[in-house]
């Protein structure tokens, strides 16, 4: 009867009630859907991590006490010679490094999982050597691989549940490494999205710096740097779009090179910014020293890579340019004029400068033109989609705590963000360069920005040529490794690295000193002008004995010359320290 009475209602009232019932049903159904999706997502994270942990445990049970110090403490070239002459085998080397990597990751969480069948691969290399086969340049050398790089049968998730799908093939550079006799043996951790210089994601958790477990190893190639720094790998393959390879190398006290874009293949590298071309991205190499980086570049730059990826420029590795002794004219700056460096990072450049001068090289002051304009241009280009791509990937995903602050800003209602921009612009103009420049751009605006990038690159090259420079040395960062989880608040400290992605200049980092007690004490004089500098002054305390690196930079396509400058800085600083 109540139902019949309802039918006799005013049509308008009835339609309102029916709409209310339908709306309520929709909201309830959507809530149930979100809960189901949330549970599925958590199950995916849990399953993927459990599979990885089980793979590590299984590998460890097989290895037992196979970590042999005579192998894992040997220098790279000595180890290569031992394998080639038969004093040791590829299998022994791989087992020793796999055992060490799996032990080290228990302290730092740098390894996501071991690559399957590496011992089978090593046995095959030993059999081929016994049969007299021609040996590759990296014969028997274990190489660690960044999680975003495809290895057949393994996941490249970069922290997304939706990408927990095994790759159907190896990335091009993994194929080249295999062709050179190397043994890719583990994959290493990255931050969710990889648009971060921290190293944490909801699937594999957070990686910590092997030199200070309260601090980040850097990102996004943080797992690579942490593993190499702890002695669990000799050589590593990573990527770099704003310092993603150089910052972790610097924070962990190892070497890393970002070559010119398209010098190395990026095919098979997963990215949250696929399609973005306003800022250059590169595959990169990491190693304990410059020699390791040079050997990796030499092994990768060959016909195998060019045939597998026709987009790569077919430039053979120039050994003479990479190794020939020369008189250098080097530019330098210890502060980029945008974000002030902490005392240790300023001192590192000055000490590298003095060491080069003591060796007879000419070192002159160099200033990047209009650095604040360049930093703004970087953020305008990298954020030209207003973060839409990253926000889309994070839909129905758990957002890692390390990037929540950044994502919160991206997901604010447009009117709220506009108000925030206005307040920030008035109070902290430098902070505005990031907050105010990440916004949706039209095609016409994007083209205009890309033209500005071309013009800026030309201006830098003209300033470079006017001084007749062979290269420059700069700070590798504004400060050392931040506490785990704090990097999203201070992305502007990366201006020292991302400027060379904007310019697409090859750049590499070399450790030259450590933070001293005097550096720590001098932080009382560090400027506290805005939110950023106050945070740096706070977080930079307590870094005594952590490594400090300088960055070496050369002109586009002079990647070998960059390696040569890195090696000369490494040599000169070592010579000065020995005196």
Summarize the structure.
The protein is α/β, with parallel strands linked by helices and 579 residues long. It has 23 helices and 13 strands. Strands 1-3-2-6-8-7-12-13-11-9-10 form an eleven-stranded mixed sheet, sandwiched between helices.
Q: What can you tell me about this protein's structure?
A:
By secondary structure, this protein is an alpha/beta fold. The chain is about 50% helix and about 10% strand. It has 23 helices and 13 strands. The chain has helices at about 1-5, 10-65, 70, 75-85, 90-110, 120-130, 170-180, 220-230, 245-250, 290-300, 305-310, 320-325, 345-360, 370-380, 390-395, 405-410, 415-425, 430-435, 445-465, 495-505, 515-520, 530-540, 560-579; strands at about 110-115, 140-145, 185-190, 200, 205, 235-240, 255-260, 280-285, 330, 360-365, 470-475, 505-515, 545-555. The strands form 2 sheets. It has an 11-stranded mixed sheet, sandwiched between helices. It starts with a helix and ends with a helix. About 50% of the residues are buried.
């Amino acid at each position: 009867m109540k139902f019949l009475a309802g039918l006799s209602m005013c049509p308008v009232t009835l339609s309102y009630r029916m709409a209310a019932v339908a709306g309520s049903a929709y909201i309830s159904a959507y809530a149930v859907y979100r809960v189901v999706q949330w549970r599925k997502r958590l199950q995916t994270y849990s399953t993927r991590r459990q599979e990885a942990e089980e793979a590590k445990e299984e590998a460890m049970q097989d290895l037992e006490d196979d970590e042999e110090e005579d192998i894992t403490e040997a220098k790279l070239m000595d180890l290569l010679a031992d394998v080639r002459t038969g004093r040791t085998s590829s299998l022994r080397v791989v087992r020793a490094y796999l055992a060490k990597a799996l032990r080290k990751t228990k302290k730092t969480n740098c390894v996501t999982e071991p690559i399957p069948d590496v011992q089978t691969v090593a046995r095959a290399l030993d059999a081929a050597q016994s049969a007299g086969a021609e040996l590759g340049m990296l014969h028997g050398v274990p190489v660690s691989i960044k999680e975003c790089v495809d290895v057949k049968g393994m996941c490249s998730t970069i922290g997304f549940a939706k990408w927990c799908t095994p790759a159907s093939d190896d990335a091009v550079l993994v194929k080249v490494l295999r062709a050179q006799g190397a043994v890719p043996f583990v994959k290493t951790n990255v931050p969710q999205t990889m648009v971060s210089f921290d190293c944490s994601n909801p699937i594999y958790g957070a990686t910590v710096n092997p030199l200070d477990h309260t601090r980040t190893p850097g990102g996004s190639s943080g797992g690579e740097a942490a593993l190499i720094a702890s002695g669990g790998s000799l050589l590593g393959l990573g990527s770099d779009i704003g310092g993603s390879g150089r910052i972790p190398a610097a924070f962990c006290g190892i070497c890393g090179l970002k070559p010119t874009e398209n010098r190395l293949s990026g095919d098979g590298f997963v990215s949250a910014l696929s399609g973005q071309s306003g800022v250059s991205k590169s595959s990169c190499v990491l190693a304990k020293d410059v020699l390791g980086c040079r050997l990796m570049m030499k092994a990768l730059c060959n016909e195998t890579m060019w045939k597998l990826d026709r987009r790569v420029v077919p430039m053979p590795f120039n050994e003479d340019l990479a190794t020939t002794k020369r008189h250098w004219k080097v530019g330098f700056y210890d502060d980029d004029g945008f974000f002030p460096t902490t005392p240790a990072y300023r001192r590192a450049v000055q000490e590298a400068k003095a060491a080069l001068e003591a060796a007879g090289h000419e070192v002159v002051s160099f200033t990047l033109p209009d650095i604040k304009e360049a930093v703004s241009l970087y953020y305008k280009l990298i954020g030209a989609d207003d973060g839409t791509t990253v926000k889309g990937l994070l839909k129905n995903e758990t957002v890692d705590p390390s990037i929540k602050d950044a994502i919160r800003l991206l997901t604010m209602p447009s009117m709220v963000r506009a108000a925030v921009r206005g307040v920030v612009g008035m109070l902290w103009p430098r902070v505005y360069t990031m907050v105010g420049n990440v916004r949706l751009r039209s095609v016409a605006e994007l083209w205009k920005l890309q033209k500005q990038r071309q013009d800026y690159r030309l201006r830098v090259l003209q300033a470079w040529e006017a001084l007749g420079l062979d290269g420059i040395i700069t700070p590798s960062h504004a400060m050392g490794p931040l506490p785990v989880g704090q990097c999203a608040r201070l992305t502007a400290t990366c201006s020292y690295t991302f400027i060379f992605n904007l310019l697409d200049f090859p750049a590499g980092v070399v450790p030259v000193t450590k933070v001293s007690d005097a550096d720590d004490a001098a932080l009382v004089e560090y400027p506290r002008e805005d939110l950023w500098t106050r945070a740096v002054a706070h977080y930079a305390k307590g870094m005594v004995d952590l490594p400090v690196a300088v960055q070496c930079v050369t002109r586009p396509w002079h990647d070998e010359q960059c390696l040569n400058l890195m090696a000369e800085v490494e040599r000169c600083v070592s010579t000065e320290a020995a005196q």
